[in-house]
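Q: Second attempt. The first request was missing the SMILES, so the protein and thiamine diphosphate are both included now.
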Amino acid sequence: MRVAEAVGRGLAGLGVNTVFGVVGSGNFHVTNALVAGGARFVAARHEGGATVMADAWARTTGVPGVVTVHQGPGLTNAMTGIAEAAKSRTPLLVLAAEAPEVRSNFHVDVAGLAAAVGAVGERIYSPDSALADAHRAYATALGRRTVILALPLNVQGAACEPGPVPALRRTYPTAPAAEAVTALAEALRGARRPVFIAGRGARGRAAELERLAGACGALLATSAVAKGLFRGSPWNLDVSGGFATPLAAELIGDADVIVGWGCSLNMWTTRHGKLIPPQATLVQVDDDPAAIGVHRPVHLGVPGDVAETAGAVADALGGSPGATGYRSAEVQARIAGQGRWRDVAYKDESDGERIDPRTLSIALDDLLPAERTVAVDSGNFMGYPSMFLSVPDEAGFCFTQAFQSIGLGLATAIGAAIARPDRLTVAALGDGGALMGVSELETVARLGLPMVVIVYDDEAYGAEVHHFGPDGEPLEIVRFPPTDIAAIGRGFGFEGVTVRDAADLAPVRDWLAGPRERPLLIDAKITSAHGSWWLE
Ligand SMILES: Cc1ncc(C[n+]2csc(CCOP(=O)(O)OP(=O)(O)O)c2C)c(N)n1
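A: Got both inputs this time. The predicted holo structure:
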């Protein structure tokens, strides 16, 4: 058997059942071997798209994603997606063919590219070590790393005798130290206005956090990437940071103890630190000790698994009746009345020609089924779908924004849609991001994904317009003439609707009531008199 086939079959044997990619000569055999081993192959139209799809699939399923790319340009095309995944600590394995001859024009320094963006460089060293090399790379990815596995063409083509694939290692959650549990219980026992901010490391652990929050009277918030985690709790403040509602910002700003759970407390989650009151005791719980205190100094750092730590601290507090803490009837009523952005009064700036993005988002929130996955691109517009479209839980929001690249939103939606076919996937894009990632519209149509793509179309790079406009800078270089994006969608096989007014959403209602045989693209011509609140 050739190494390429042994590696593909070996990875399938480890449980790889879905692979994204763009196939060229260098990854043809390994990809076909994965398929022969039982994996589904999803062909993207650009390696950047393929990588982001695998990333979003991994985030949504909780299982490492796998993407396969051709040597040279196949890998360089994938680099933005790889950077996003690496910065997000997505478990992702990139199978990258490699031209080993250094004088070859197709040769690129794979390990150097990996290191440059914070990914791990691995390689298939020899026919004898091939299976062990692939196994090691997959196991590293499993530990929340993005790994580029170089597959040199000369080694891929060599014969090997594959032995049995060893099972993957089992790992167990990290228990916190007893002293740390006591210290955190002490801090919470004395807290009058505690707030929990849960990050991606808390996904899937809402029940344990809610039990502890109930015992100490804490309010609940998340970073953007964990949005939806506390859906349904009357104490849910939704997202902390730039996206926060005025009420969430006020209540977090009055906290006396803030605990970040699996949350890095970075500049976005804390509004560059301004959301964290200086007098508050700041605690960070993370199963990676190296993550503690990276973005801001904390008073107490607890290395430990989020669920294990929350459970141990709740037990330590146990016995006594739950403290009221921040949970007064008044706070509850305020959250019920003003806890969502759509509850915040605003002046509708729709003028018949262009629709206010808030009005559009609220109307879509009402129209679209609650069982949905929302994927959002980058740009001025991005707060509207992120905060005005509700999601059923943390798996219902996919936010590939660690690198803040525009153009990733559509591929994100595709990966999430494949991971959760039971939910309607909604891709929310700016016109800039939509046109940058446009090639994957064909992938949506070809795969028959029943997706809704909403383009918040201001005919500009709105983020730049609103960033530089107030200073009187010339803006011609970031404005564009009108584009009929609905027609572009129809060309790819979508149903296309242009929306200038809430009444124009009638075809969306019809599409939702119909068989949804073709995906739907909504080109919403939005107002853009000023920047969105989070940008301002
Ligand atoms: C790959 C990449 N190139 C450039 C940028 C800089 N940038 C940030 S937002 C933005 C404009 C995006 O425009 P659009 O998608 O239409 O959204 P809008 O800001 O208009 O809401 C640009 C160019 C970026 N973030 N990523």
